[in-house]
């Protein structure tokens, strides 16, 4: 599991340590020292000492010659990438299948609010997932995602367990800190003291709605393909049955096209909102009859078939 | 159309007045004087004078012996009910089919944020609809829902058209005013200057997702009913095909049960989140085999059929 030394991850470490026999866990700790603060080496030593005390193996990671992909994006994003990359490496090296991360219900509410404000749409509203596959054999899990930070801190206090106060080791985000310390307290005071729960409920509903639409889009793609091998890499066109697409709600048809573009590795980011809605319109009303799309892709209606192909010119 | 005298509704009045020949509109104005402020009679006179100047008929409404249903809820909610009831009455009396209301893109963003904070879930995230049926013959429309208030105010300034500053005639909501004047400006400054657009995009996506799920739930209810007359009023049970329900995503099955409860007029509000999820679980896994629900409703799995009935005791 990942331990920064903050209240959340120290709590999760103690919890998993308590349960190690019952759940037959082989517990290991990974701590990433980003070396962005002077005191970060002390934090790493503190985590090592705690692990020694609990007799849990501990691996400390530090930034090395990073590949270029790690350095893309802002400081926050690249730090996050480095950290998760390190966790994944440790897991693979030690044949560990589950990496536990101590995100809490508070992190969830903060993330949902952050995504609402940034405008990441319904997808972003889903917030942090309970589990995520890092590789085929390594899965990230978040066992504390339903637990409030205040409960964890109370439990640590009752056990007289210390923890590190400065969590910037795991969270460089200026915006995230502002959301935690300013924005959420402000919204609680001015709009609803229970806004955390409201945000989490919204995330859950968005997850359910999005996964329903994804599932239906997946089925629709299978059912409306008239040339069954057309998702095979290399084939430069697909043919889709218009009557099949007409049976489904617009949101499902749109989601299906997004899936198609992803699978064909067509340039998704160049597609504007206008392009997607024109395409959905074609799929259900056969109008317009022809449409030129980014990346040299041409969509054409022929009777009951919508053909989408890469232009050869 | 409804005119409070504020910038939004004065703009819409001028716009519809400009377009009256082109669109062959027969324009009438309705203004509701809630008589909750001393100056409200002056506002009504001001609106009447503006209408005289434009040669548009104007009807002023005032609270009278209200029916009890109008008095339920807080001051804001009951004022809103009275106002819309008045608009509907005027429309019916004058055989008007469309009631235009001057809600703007800013109102939409404020509403979405308000609903997020209150925790009204994905349904609330949809915000204000573009149209809504008041009665069979009267439809409410919101032609300015994509337009920013600042554009309207700029246009009024360029036409040197005055408007009433105090809009509390149409909007008593303390929370709403706080969202407009404090919360949104604060979020723009601290998180994203474009948060309005982000909120509106979210509303649109939530509308699309919700209408997809509603449509699929409607279809599923039709397809899974094994006794085709079971939605007929008075029949105390329904039988639903488990294999049909199993084909659909969980969110669609849940939405279908909500529709069923609404149509059968079973006590929906007494159903907890736990009840709904137990029922959805039964519909897809046949477990538990029996379930007692609020309002004396019993759900039972018999082979491939889920039977839901009112207990006779």
Automatic annotation (TrEMBL), chains A, B:
Subcellular location: Cytoplasm
Domain tRNA(Ile)-lysidine/2-thiocytidine synthase N-terminal: start-end pairs: 2-181
SUPFAM superfamilies: Adenine nucleotide alpha hydrolases-like (SSF52402)
Catalytic activity: cytidine(34) in tRNA(Ile2) + L-lysine + ATP = lysidine(34) in tRNA(Ile2) + AMP + diphosphate + H(+)
GO biological process, one term: tRNA modification
Cross-referenced InterPro entries: Rossmann-like_a/b/a_fold, TilS/TtcA_N, tRNA_Ile_lys_synt, tRNA_Ile_lys_synt_N
Entry keyword annotation includes ATP-binding: yes
Gene Ontology, cellular component aspect: cytoplasm
Keywords of the record: ATP-binding, Cytoplasm, Ligase, Nucleotide-binding, tRNA processing
Domain notes: The N-terminal region contains the highly conserved SGGXDS motif, predicted to be a P-loop motif involved in ATP binding.
Xref: HAMAP family: tRNA_Ile_lys_synt
Alphabetized PANTHER family for the sequence: TRNA(ILE)-LYSIDINE SYNTHASE-RELATED (PTHR43033:SF1)
UniProt protein name: tRNA(Ile)-lysidine synthase
Lineage of the species this protein comes from: Bacteria, Pseudomonadati, Planctomycetota, Planctomycetia, Planctomycetales
